[in-house]
Amino acid sequence: MRVLSLVSFLFVGCAPSLLDDVDGDSNTVDADTAAEPVNAVVESYDDGSMLLILQATHERIPVLLDLDTQFTTLGDEWDVSIVRFDSWANEDVSIIAYPDTAFDDVVTYDDADWVSGTAGAELFADWWVYDISTHIVTAADTTFAVLTNTGDVYKVRFIDYYADAGTPGTVSILVAPLEKTD
Fold first, then answer.
1. Cα–Cα–Cα angle for 16, 20, 23, nearest 5°?
2. 111: which residues sit within 8 A by CB, 6+ positions away?
3. How far is it, in rounded angstroms, from Cα 47 to Cα 57?
4. Torsion angles phi and psi, residue 40, rounded to 5
5. How far apart are CA 145 and CA 103, in angstroms?
6. Rounded distance, CA 167 to CA 136, Å?
7. pTM, rounded to two decimals
């Protein structure tokens, strides 16, 4: 009986969380339950880049970011959605991932490389790495190019998942406009 209890415990412990999706579809966000709009910019730099901080601490309510305005939004005009460490792109947004590439090294993009729809949303979800030995989430060494739903392009790099005090779900993102390859 003890073996059966242990096996049952392990099976339930490995089951997916019912909180993984906001509304059952990880690529869909209900704007009615999104966090209140705020200006996400905490610092602007001389090179045109901006540091954005998103309070994505709620387990189910997404923070919807419009890269064109750098504001979170309650409407449909969002580009990036974050619920704690889970993130995805709006279906109208396209993405290019540049793994192992520093933010400053991404200076242009090529139209042939865009990934959109579900594949783009999944690509964007790989911004973080989990260290099982420390139980810490760190930003992956990836810079993204994001083609917004208005046609503007930004480079985006996730910097941190924790606030200075160590609070998880406080996502720091570096963003800057990006020019097209000639």
1. 125
2. 180
3. 30
4. -90, -10
5. 10
6. 11
7. 0.75
Q: Could you give the maximum distance between any two Cα atoms of the chain, in Å?
A: 69
Which tokens in the block code for residue 2? Answer: 């003890």
Residues constituting the chain = 182
Backbone angles phi, psi at 57, to 5 degrees: -85, -15
Which residue in the block uniquely carries the two structure tokens 């933010």?
103
Q: Tell me the C-alpha distance between 175 and 13, whole Å.
A: 37
> Domain extents for the chain?
2-180
Q: How far apart are CA 117 and CA 113, in angstroms?
A: 14
Placement of tokens 């970011």 in the chain: 65
Of the candidates 86, 79, 53, which has an alpha carbon nearest to the alpha carbon of residue 155? 79
Rg of the chain over all Cα atoms, to the nearest angstrom: 18
Q: What is the pLDDT of residues 22-38, one digit of tens each?
A: 344 444 445 555 556 67
CA proximity to 17, closest of 84, 82, 63: 84
- Which of the two residues, 121 and 178, has the higher pLDDT score? 178
Whether 106 and 178 have beta carbons less than 8 Å apart is answered as yes
Q: How many CB atoms lie within 10 A of CB 147?
A: 24
- Three-state DSSP state, 159: strand
Per the CB < 8 A criterion, the answer to whether 79 and 90 are in contact is yes
Contacts for 169 with CB less than 8 Å, ≥ 6 apart: 55, 56, 57, 58, 84, 85, 161
